[in-house]
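To illustrate this point, we now present one chain and its tokenised fold:
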Amino acid sequence: MPTNLPPVYFEVEKRFRAAQSAEEKISCLEEMLSVIPKHKGTDKLRGDLRRKLSKLKTSSQAKKGISKRASAYHIDKMGAGLAVLVGPTNAGKSSLVTTLTNADPEVTNAPFTTWNPTPGMMPVENIQIQLVDTPSLDREVVESELIDLIRRSDLVLVVVDLRADPMQQLEDTVQILKEHRIVPLRHKDRITEAYMYTFKPFFVVVNKNDDENTDDHFEIFRQLIEGDWSLIPLSAKTGRNLEELKRAVFECLDVIRVYSKAPGKEPDYNAPFILTQGSTIEEFARKVHQDFYENLKSARVWGSAAFDGQMVGRDYVLLDGDVVELRM
């Protein structure tokens, strides 16, 4: 059966072959797995890539040992996705992470307070999304481990200060990341030799829009900004639009929540399975348990199906909020 791989797969594969560090190779393999179409024709390829990924991770951990575990930048992914907050000093990254999560980074008015990344979990309805506060981006001092962390993330949140030339802050942040071959996904068509770059979804968080008195400033920024950027004005200080940010982050992660239902029982809406957009019954079954994936006989869906409890095949594409009953 043909694999029908998309062009982006081959671009990432070239970048994988050119990668020098284990972290870069791991990031490329994870990206390759995310873009491969999910059907029987790609089962062998996906299995091979997973084995390579597992071997690389094991080898990398063995080599680094204690030093790797001691690194503040070695942050294991948790929850529905990992979003890193990047930007200039005093833009309010630490304040946002403190307000939105259980983390407690140091928050002061002094510049360059954050020296190490600080992860925290942000509740969004019935799931958790990992936010990571990072040191301010400074062209003169950019840690290679910080760049690796950003490459491994699922979403880049560029935080700018509405009251301190947000246009320049955005341009500087995007340029510094581009110099390290990390580019907004929306700019991919502008890049030659795309296989050498890492493309991530970017979202612009315009902080310090405390109340309606600063709305005009945001509107001017919105009109001046070039390109079709995703952005939201908010305030870590007053809490303005923080709920809107949570929802926007969830939507940017391109994931769905699917609930498992045992025959004759109600689903547990407090414990959804997190899958990428476009995932099928087959992928859901693998997520639940390998036995279901291998021995699945039937599946019923509530939510996106034509009617509640509709019988569907392995290739049925699920949507956010679907309830699925699997039977072996």
